[in-house]
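Limitations

Structures in this collection are predictions, not experimental determinations, and the ligand pose is part of the prediction. Treat each record accordingly. The example that follows, with 6-O-phosphono-beta-D-fructofuranose as the small molecule, is included so readers can see exactly what is and is not provided: the inputs are given verbatim, and the output is the predicted complex.
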Amino acid sequence: MKYKGESVTKTFGILTSGGDCPGLNAAIRGVCRAAYGRYHMNILGIANGYRGLIDGDVRFLEPVDFSGILTRGGTILGTSREKPFKSTEIGEDKVRAIKKNYEKYKLDCLVVLGGNGTHTTGRLLAQEGLNILGLPKTIDNDIEGTERSFGFHSAMAICTDAIDRLHSIAASHNRVMVIETMGHKAGWLALYAGIAGGGDVIIIPEIPYDIKAIARHLNERAKSGKSFSIVVVAEGALSAEESRMDKKDRKRLRSDTGFTSIAYRAAKEIETETGMETRATVLGYVQRGGIPSASDRVLATRFGTAAADLLARGEYGTMVAQIGSGIGAVDLSVPAGKIKKVPKDDSLLDTAAAVGTCLGT
Ligand code: F6P
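Predicted complex:
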């Protein structure tokens, strides 16, 4: 992929946007080292996502800025969930400010590291005439167009470690342990960590659950002599009854039950249905913190250096992606406005079912 001619991009801006995740710094390092070392580009670091470009909170980066950061968690640039196109009137001002600063710093391209929302904004900015290049990050692995996003592997390892630890508690106390992972709309993290941690039940948003079916499975386990069970649930999971409701009714039902998180609600439902002692653990932000796994460091570095090559060639309007086992790029329209969910016929679901895991139905 290495580009041999003169670099089309002379100066680019770089920002990280959306929820942070392990591997962001490794990716920043990958882009910057290759862009600076191989192609002699100028790099404008933008603080706190799109907000920094609105406010002009920026500074040119030197090699010292992107040295020694490969293993660091979080993002040296800071992040925010700023969505400049969201509110109409203020939104117009924000987009105007972004364009103004893009011009002011003579950017040839804006490199955005983020998830679905980040790429949706990136595409809208591209339609406003800016050159945009995306890198897919998120622990949810729910970005359309790429097999993997960096951050996912690290989060999976954290969740699996947590499930292992809770396993021994479940066994000692003869309990059902319900463990909640992140993943509002997509259940990749719960599914992978659930399989890796030997979950007896895995509940994901894509498959609305039936508590009676789950109770049957847990009772059968108990009858066969298994005194404990592990239930892994994604934060966005919903019951079959809820899946038939509109958003408003669902919200009302949830606030009536008094449970803010699915883990506590599922634990209560399991206890009521089976009479088994049940406990809930919400893994929360721990899943997104700390050092990236070796696998994420490699993926982020590959994405970063591939992004530098695309910048050099001037192949804007794209997102770097893992396609099969290689690294390529897809048009920004592929991830923008979409969420990659677990398909109903994903082979991993069959893998889970084949080892006796209940998928909530
Ligand atoms: O980055 C995606 C994600 O990890 C979701 O799974 C989760 O619901 C969300 O971030 C929560 O992030 P925050 O509270 O920081 O906005």
